[in-house]
Amino acid sequence: MSEKETHLFINDNLDAAIFFGSKDENFKHLLKLTPAEISARGGEIFIRGKGTDVDEAEALINQVLDIVKSEKQLNPSDINYAQSLVKKGVTIKHKDVVSGTILTTSRGKAIKAKTLGQKKYVQAMEDNDIVFAIGPAGTGKTYLAVVMAVRA
Hints:
Elements: E1 3-9, H1 13-20, H2 25-32, E2 37-41, E3 44-50, H3 51-71, H4 76-88, H5 94-98, E4 103-104, E5 110-111, H6 116-127, H7 141-151
Antiparallel strand pairs: 1-3, 2-3, 4-5
């Protein structure tokens, strides 16, 4: 396999701080998820390794940076979600997933879909009279159903 090398820039210092996390915890978590060799200096990220590994790592980092730019926060579960999207070959922008407020609470908090699956679920509830949803606990099925009922 041929070696490949690329680098990415994070221009905004706040985005860089969020991306790397406190004591580099986000960056360390990201390193565990890819076989490519990743290093950083300042706002520049260097990726080196096999061609496919580098491409996958670059896609993962771009997906994570997209989350950082749209949410202004990041945690390990966001990084895991980004990796699952990259593994599936999904190339959707995070801001497209979280765009569109479903409901605004009385305190002014906007309730939005947080994942692609939630976005599809909300869309199905808008398009159909009856929707059956199955899936793991804690993924927002009941919460979003109640939000949609309150909105109606």
